[in-house]
Amino acid sequence: MKVSRLLFLPLAAVLLASTLPGCLSLQSEEQKAEAAEKALLARHDELMAQMDQVYALRQQLQKTPGADTVAAGRHRRALVAANAGMLDWMHQYRKPADSVTVDRRLAYYAAQQQRIDSVGHLFRTSLDSARRLLEAAPSTSSPR
User: Fold this and answer.
1) Do 101 and 31 form a contact (C-beta atoms < 8 A)?
2) pTM here?
């Protein structure tokens, strides 16, 4: 009897050890999904913090007297497009249910990260180009 118990313990330890990596990888995959979601939402928050700048620059472009009103209109439309891109992303984003497999959640978050990065590119380019145009515009206090 003692011999069978001695043989059983190492066998049980081997079985337990072989199942642990599976449990650990599930946890790490779940943690990857949580980290992907957090990174995605952090990028969203970062861009949302710039929405005031988008609005302010649109207003400045509307009011700035300058010779190139065509360029100002083009830059205003680019800022509107950046704003619309963010609103579109927010309206279509849906957090996957916890019952969805981790692989599918990771794929969803990766696709959403690409989309929000595209919105970020719109923000960056439209904000930068609008600022450059406003800096180059003649000020209202200069003599004519």
Assistant:
1) no
2) 0.72
